[in-house]
Specification:
This is GntR family transcriptional regulator. It contains 6 helices and 3 strands. By secondary structure, it is mainly alpha-helical. A hairpin with a 5-residue loop joins strand 2 and strand 3.
Length: about 130
């Protein structure tokens, strides 16, 4: 599996990594159980910040495309193929669009929506 990052792209580098790893799974270039490079190794290979690679790995692990096995490393998840089609960003965007449309229909201004959204995001989780 070869990963390349276009630093000139409008797509964030972590998103490019996520997309390329998902595509590698979908096209059979990697299989469940296959190892992935460590965060440090991939960051060095791509000449990018470790935090960028770590963010991509966290998102892939959240989506069950990869799994981390402690000191043994990071591997392609057994259910990776089925989980590659999950796009939480698209789902969140759809949900927000629908909610904002409901607010606007009720007469709430965009400014009021922004303030309420920021307030909710700034609240401690569970609150």
């Amino acid at each position: 599996m070869e990963i390349t990052v276009d630093i000139e792209s409008a797509t964030p580098m972590f998103s490019q990594l996520v997309m390329q790893i998902k595509q590698a799974v979908q096209h059979g270039k990697v299989a469940p159980g296959d190892p992935l490079p460590s965060i440090r190794q991939l960051a060095n290979d791509l000449e990018m910040n470790n935090k960028t690679v770590a963010k991509a790995y966290r998102l892939l692990e959240r989506d069950s495309v990869i799994q981390t096995k402690g000191y043994r490393g990071t591997f392609i998840h057994p259910d990776a193929m089925a989980n590659c089609t999950v796009d939480l960003n698209a789902w969140v965007t759809k949900q927000l669009r629908e909610t904002i449309a409901t607010f606007r229909k009720a007469g709430v201004t965009d400014s009021e929506i922004r303030i309420a959204f920021a307030d909710v995001l700034n609240q401690p989780q569970g609150g």
